[in-house]
TrEMBL record, chain A:
Protein name stated in the entry: Lactose ABC transporter permease
ABC transmembrane type-1 domain location: 88-303
Membrane topology term: Multi-pass membrane protein
Organism: Terribacillus saccharophilus
One example of a Gene Ontology biological process annotation: transmembrane transport
PROSITE patterns: ABC_TM1 (PS50928)
Length: 311, 425
């Protein structure tokens, strides 16, 4: 799609300039294009070229370099592949539980921390934002040890007599999902909170004052003023979180490695397994990656429809 | 001005396209720099260092560089480089696990260099040949054995009134019986298991010469695989009577062993250094032959892991092959040092008569474990690991959960069979 744009300046440059007025306009256009050209060229080579290559590859199958065209077989296989369907199911479970919980938590925290009378504001903000600067792999490994059968979480729960024997946080299909959700919530809540905080600071205080004079309670102010004012930001964060969750890889790979069975495996991890863990089938792996693209598009459209302005 | 700018654009385009077209004109020059990739600094890397020292005593002009990567990283690097067709940055020699070897040899034909001239495969344990060769050519230089044994806490056994002799030539029913008695006496569970890693089942079925795949190395063999069914049944039995302590990763695994939480440890011989790491348990361990499967043809010997060296088809290949042939594939001091300093069991048969194999190990109560392992190595049934070990293992790891939760064994196996046929292509 970018190819005509890229060719633009070069083609035009070969023509001799006919009239001074047009030549000036042409020159301006050319300069404009030349600024865009470098970026488009690089994007073309490093984004669109691999994307097209991957699309072509998704119609091929075979081991390693022995790829051959198989038509739509990979896409048919996709819908019959129980592992793929399980990974989609797992990813969607993470999505519909984790994203709303995280968004609400982030909203709540940002409103609390936006309170003018709160002391140690800077400290609390930093503390909640800090998880975002940790490396994905490093925090995953720490979580794995926290939630190990004899890890600190189990030890604490047992010491305060909440459970009588260790919860299998990593080896039970249900609890393993909970562990993953807890981990990503911890990692990303602060990140979203920062967006809400900065948006809140742009909300005119007089609106709240007027509401107060009219006798609105704090809860009413939150739902009737804060939420509507933050709507575009909420939409933005929910879309980026959705995309992030659909691409989830590091945490699952490092905390549970997809186990037990396939019960925590995500789509991205399945792509990794198809390419590197099993006998490599890069063609089918490319097909699965395109499935993620399609899913992201679908979810984003749904969110735009649900949260966007009604025009 | 404009022209200059356009010229610059064209140049940058040219440079970029030159980058992408790659280095086709690479000279097939001979090189004296040999790079070796392997994982596990205590075992494989140490062995490679020993081989390097031994070889350089006579061939000092060859520069051998040994580089340590995690096994997963090696697999990734090989796959990405080989599939893109570039050999730049690849080593001359790489260690590949036997379970994965066919997957590489068949996925990237012509990328590996046959070593028929450098070694004689008949010198090595027989079971090593199918995974390391392809289309009649020998590609791998067989390295460590991965021979399996049943590591046992003799002090726990004694508390329950048993001794290590009760485990000689035992089958799994007998082992479970002893394990249950030990648990009643000491409160310690029998084994530890990662629900996602079916190494135990792999060892079990190889004792009767069976594998996840038929002998052709491609067709899944699950629904009618009696050995696998029996292994599933035994696994469930162990879980049902609470003999299995779960762990989720390697460090938990090692901690469970070193803390004395389990009475038995079925594993490959490469676990020895990790067991011995807990020096306070010296004299409390022994190694019994691997238990066989009850009620069917099965021997007291099996294998877990084990790997071989491969030479990549890039400049320096002849020298790399010769280096491997003169060390891992020849009867020299190297093999004795490998036993003495690394504690590894090789697969090079003529070396097994050496003195180092006869040493008694105080940690294992004076047992000659090396000599025992070497003897069991010769009995390991030969199977073709084929292409799909890890795909099928993931399927089975999932299906076995259903079986453990009470689904019928035959239904589970048939389901796994059809899944495997769908996915292992």
């Amino acid at each position: 799609m970018n190819i005509p744009e890229k060719l633009g300046p070069e083609k035009l440059a070969k023509k001799p300039a006919p009239r001074p007025a047009r030549s000036l306009r042409l020159k301006n256009t050319l300069i404009g294009w030349s600024f865009v050209a470098v970026a488009s060229l690089l994007i073309g080579i490093f984004y669109f070229f691999p994307m097209v290559q991957a699309l072509i590859m998704s119609f091929q199958s075979g081991t390693g370099v022995n790829l051959s065209f198989v038509g739509f077989e990979n896409y048919i296989r996709l819908f019959q592949d129980p592992v793929f369907l399980t990974t989609v199911k797992n990813t969607v479970i993470y999505l519909i539980i984790q994203v709303p919980v995280m968004i609400l938590l982030a909203l709540f925290l940002s409103v609390v921390l936006n309170n003018k009378t709160l002391k140690w504001k800077g400290f609390f903000r930093t503390a909640i934002f800090l998880p975002c600067v940790t490396s994905l792999v490093a925090y995953s490994v720490v979580f794995k040890y926290l939630f190990a059968p004899d890890g600190i979480v189990n030890m604490t729960l047992m010491k305060i007599n909440l459970v009588s024997e260790p919860v299998q946080w990593l080896t039970d299909p249900f609890w393993a999902k909970i562990t993953i959700i807890l981990a990503i919530t911890w990692r990303w809540t602060g990140y979203n909170m920062i967006f809400y905080l900065s948006a809140l600071q742009n909300v005119d205080q007089s609106i709240y004052e007027a509401a107060k004079i009219d006798g609105a309670s704090a809860i009413q102010q939150f739902f009737k003023i804060t939420i509507p004012m933050l709507k575009p930001i909420i939409l933005f964060t929910s879309i980026t979180s959705t995309i992030g969750t659909l691409q989830l890889f590091d945490e699952v790979m490092n905390i549970t490695a997809g186990g037990p069975g396939n019960s925590t495996m995500t789509i991205s991890q399945y792509i990794y397994n198809l390419s590197f863990k099993y006998t490599p089938d890069f063609g089918y792996a490319a097909t699965v990656s395109y499935a993620i693209v399609i899913l992201i598009v679908i979810f984003s459209i749904i969110q735009f429809k649900a949260g966007g302005e009604k025009k | 001005m404009m022209k200059k700018f356009l010229a610059l654009l064209f140049v940058s385009l040219l440079v970029l396209s030159a980058c992408s077209s790659g280095s086709g004109s690479e000279a097939d020059a001979d090189t004296n720099d040999i790079k070796v990739w392997a994982w596990d600094p205590n075992f494989n890397i140490k062995a490679a260092e020993l081989a390097k020292t031994a070889y350089q005593e006579e061939n000092s002009e060859l520069n051998i560089e040994i580089i340590e990567y995690a096994q997963d990283d090696i697999i990734q690097k090989l796959n990405t480089s080989l599939s893109s067709g570039t050999t730049k940055g690849l080593p001359n020699v790489v260690l590949i696990e036997d379970y994965r070897a066919q997957s590489f040899l068949q996925s990237y034909p012509d990328m590996f260099y046959a070593v028929d001239d450098a070694i004689s495969i008949d010198d090595f344990a027989k079971y090593k040949q199918p995974p390391t060769s392809f289309e009649g050519k020998q590609y791998g230089v067989p390295f460590d054995s991965g021979v399996a044994g049943l590591y046992v806490r003799t002090d726990y056994l004694e508390e329950a009134g048993y001794s290590i002799d009760d485990l000689k030539d035992a089958d799994w029913e007998k082992v479970i019986e002893i394990g249950t008695a030990v648990k009643d006496a000491t409160g310690k569970q029998m084994i530890t298991q990662d629900p996602k890693d079916l190494g135990l089942l792999r060892m079990m079925i190889q004792t009767s010469g069976a594998w996840y795949l038929e002998e052709d190395g491609v067709t899944p063999n699950i629904a009618n695989n009696d050995a696998l069914k029996e292994a599933f049944r035994l696994y469930k039995e162990m879980i049902d009577v609470d003999l299995v302590k779960p762990h989720a990763d390697w460090s938990q695994y090692i901690a469970t062993i070193n803390n004395g939480d389990i009475s038995m440890l079925p594993s490959g011989n490469w676990i020895t250094p990790s067991v011995k790491a807990e020096a306070s348990q010296s004299g409390k361990w022994a190694v019994a032959p691997f238990p066989k499967l009850p009620g069917m043809e099965s021997v007291n010997a099996s294998n877990l892991g084990g790997s071989s060296w491969y030479v990549l088809n890039i400049p320096g290949k002849e020298k790399a092959a010769e280096f491997l042939g003169q060390t891992f594939g020849a009867d020299g001091d190297f093999h004795q040092q490998f036993v003495e300093e690394v504690g590894g069991v090789g697969t090079y048969q003529p070396a097994a008569e050496g003195e180092a194999y006869q040493a008694e190990d105080e940690f294992f109560g004076g047992q000659k474990i090396m000599s025992d392992f070497a003897a069991w190595t010769e009995e390991i049934p030969q199977v073709n690991y084929g292409l799909h070990t890890y795909v099928i293992e993931d399927i089975l790891a999932n299906e076995i959960q259903k079986y453990l939760q009470g689904e019928d064994l035959d239904t589970v196996m048939e389901n796994a069979q059809s899944l495997a046929e769908q996915q292992a292509k």
